[in-house]
Write a structure and sequence with these properties.
Layout lengths: L1 H22 L8 H25 L12 H23 L3 H25 L9 H22 L16 H23 L15 H21 L3 H23 L10 H27 L1
Helix pairs in contact: 1-2, 2-3, 3-7, 3-8, 4-5, 4-7, 6-7, 7-8, 8-9
Length: 289
């Protein structure tokens, strides 16, 4: 219980700091809906960032079921990716940037929540207080993201002229949609497939679906953002963070004398390198516009 109280305290401190930094300066010009939307972005960024460190070191007190070590570190990588996307949206809360993050939250949480309620409640120890915190946060964020997707308030004026992303960025994000989307579907459907290069959590379907949900989120974000240079840049930064985290999570096993998951290291290492190079070249593309 004490550990949970510390996490709640850290969350409230983070929300307070986020409110003072990104919401209070705009409070006079924002409606309550607008303030609520920005608070959702702060919650996304702060909540994931606080939890990520416990998930990375595989601390069972920081999550609602016992994750395999690689899945825990991939969850931490997903949290860091959401942190980057949330920070970029808060720094410049343009309509499309914010909507990108709302879609990512929706795609990540809704399928996962559905399969948990339908098939996986046996994973949860309802004597543990953190389980109730998990469900409260998930339901709150699903409700809020769904509402704001339906009726999204305008925080800053929409840009009159939308800059198209470069051909290289569009093609790369389209490839990500195909490859990562199919990978996510495979992990979400089953935990045991024809090759261990993809299915590394045999016998743990919920953990497989947890990782699959993030891959589907990446694919959805890449699809949504591929044509707009500004949102594409947010997605590239998000993808770069996630890919780098997964590659590092795979290498991490070296420190414990365990086999490296070569397929995840190779694929996401390549994704990280290419995405990083596109982030550099895309900056020049935007400057030229």
């Amino acid at each position: 219980m004490f550990d949970l109280m510390l996490q709640i305290l850290a969350l409230f401190i983070g929300l307070f700091v986020g409110y003072r930094r990104w919401i209070a300066p705009r409070a006079d010009s924002l409606s309550r809906q607008g303030q609520g939307l920005l608070l959702l972005l702060v919650l996304t960024m702060v909540g994931g960032f606080i939890g990520s460190f416990g998930w990375w070191v595989d601390d069972p007190r920081t999550f609602s079921w016992d994750l395999p070590p690689l899945a825990g570190r991939m969850l931490a990588s997903a949290a860091w990716a959401f942190t980057v996307a949330g920070l970029m949206a808060l720094q410049k809360p343009a309509y499309e940037r914010v909507r990108l993050l709302l879609w990512m939250l929706f795609v990540y949480l809704v399928p996962l929540a559905l399969v948990i309620f339908l098939f996986h409640l046996d994973y949860f120890d309802f004597q543990a207080p953190i389980v109730y915190g998990f469900f409260i946060i998930v339901v709150t964020m699903i409700t809020a993201s769904s509402w704001y997707l339906y009726r999204q308030p305008e925080i800053v004026a929409k840009e009159k002229e939308v800059v198209s992303s470069s051909i290289a960025v569009r093609n790369w994000l389209s490839l990500i949609v195909l490859v990562i989307g199919l990978w996510g579907v495979a992990l979400f459907i089953t935990d045991s497939g024809p090759t261990k290069l993809i299915w590394v959590w045999a016998g743990d379907l919920l953990s497989s679906r947890l990782i699959g949900a993030m891959l589907l989120t990446i694919a959805a974000g890449a699809w949504y953002s591929r044509s707009n240079a500004d949102t594409a840049r947010v997605m590239l930064a998000t993808l770069f963070t996630y890919a780098l985290g997964i590659a590092f999570a795979s290498v991490w096993f070296v420190f414990f004398n365990k086999p490296v998951v070569a397929s995840y290291l190779t694929v996401f290492g390549i994704i990280g390198i290419v995405t990083g190079l596109l982030l550099i070249s895309d900056k020049a593309h935007l400057a030229a516009k």
